[in-house]
Write a structure and sequence with these properties.
single chain, Carbamate kinase, 8 strands, binds adenosine-5'-diphosphate, binds ligand VHF
């Protein structure tokens, strides 16, 4: 068993493959379960942040387009269309559980500028005071790094450091970090715990698995580095059934845990 009994602040990141179908349409049954479990862990008394991808895919889905060969500018416009679609469904689903949500669009440079970072930190603080669940995505109209490198994973790690989270959970379309990309290699094994991001870990992390996703395991390892440097444990788990979030918090050994050896248990 893992000891997450004292986790007060938790950041949960969901990838494009978790919230949308390859058609770009919303995966409603999954989103319903996600809203339910996050509302539930909020009711337990925790501060919860949801970092969500899926804006570009939702834009594609709404327009009936496919991803192939979209330019960065096209993706920016699609993200602007899709972001509203995402917020509309989150507003509806969390609203059913009486939970207030807030849209927070960020760019990663907030961590480089003290003034901006303080503004963001203060906003999160008041959102928690108001009992809201901040729903974060990158501001793709302003920043293009993520659209090119698929980096909501590292954005979620930055958010975890800004709010001084006790745990970061990344939900993906795979059970965790394997000894090789299961889509490409046979006989790969799930790695349960990683205590250090060394050259071996970097070497086994490959790119994205599905048509609308970006970043793959590489950006999740980058996220783990950031989290571990700040003493924040991170778990990668399969978001197929979002109720795993609750099980992870209960200490069940699900997915891959990244924890620096000198991190005291939170
Ligand atoms: N070593 C690895 N272990 C697990 N998955 C890997 C690995 N290397 C590459 N991948 C790929 O990373 C994918 C998950 O990342 P990604 O496609 O970006 O999804 P998400 O939308 O959840 O961010 C997996 O489906 C898998 O194909
Ligand atoms: N801001 C983009 C996120 C792109 C991205 O990082 O996607 P993913 O690899 O699925 O987490 C969007 O909402 O489409």
């Amino acid at each position: 068993m893992r000891d997450f009994g004292n986790v007060k602040k938790v950041v949960v990141k969901v990838g494009t493959s978790t919230v949308t179908y390859p058609t770009g349409k919303l995966n409603l049954s999954r989103l319903e379960k996600l809203a339910r479990v996050l509302s539930d862990i909020k009711n337990e008394g925790r501060d919860v942040v949801l970092v969500t991808s899926g804006a570009v895919a939702s834009g594609l889905g709404r327009l009936g387009l496919t991803k192939n060969h979209k330019t960065t500018q096209e993706k920016q416009a699609l993200a602007a269309i899709g972001q509203g679609i995402l917020m509309q469904i989150y507003e509806k689903l969390f609203g059913e559980y009486g939970v207030v949500v807030a849209q927070v669009l960020l760019t990663k440079d907030v961590v480089d500028e003290e003034k901006k970072m303080l503004n963001v930190k203060n906003t999160f603080e008041y959102l928690f005071k108001y009992g809201a669940i901040p729903i974060v995505n990158e501001n793709d109209v302003v920043a293009i790094e993520e659209l090119e490198f698929g980096d909501n994973d590292t954005l979620s790690a930055y958010v975890a450091t800004i709010i001084d989270a006790d745990l970061l959970i990344i939900l993906s379309d795979i059970d965790g970090l394997y000894s090789g990309d299961p889509r490409l290699c046979k006989d790969v094994k799930l790695i349960k715990e990683v205590f250090e991001i060394d050259s071996y870990v970097e070497s086994i992390a490959g790119g994205a698995g599905t048509v609308n996703s970006t970043g793959g395991m590489q950006t999740k390892i980058e996220a783990a580095k950031i989290a571990m440097q700040h003493g924040i444990p991170m778990v990668i788990a399969n978001g197929e059934n979002p109720s795993v979030v609750k099980e992870i918090l209960e200490g069940k050994e699900i997915g891959t845990l990244f924890v620096s050896k000198n991190t005291v248990s939170r």
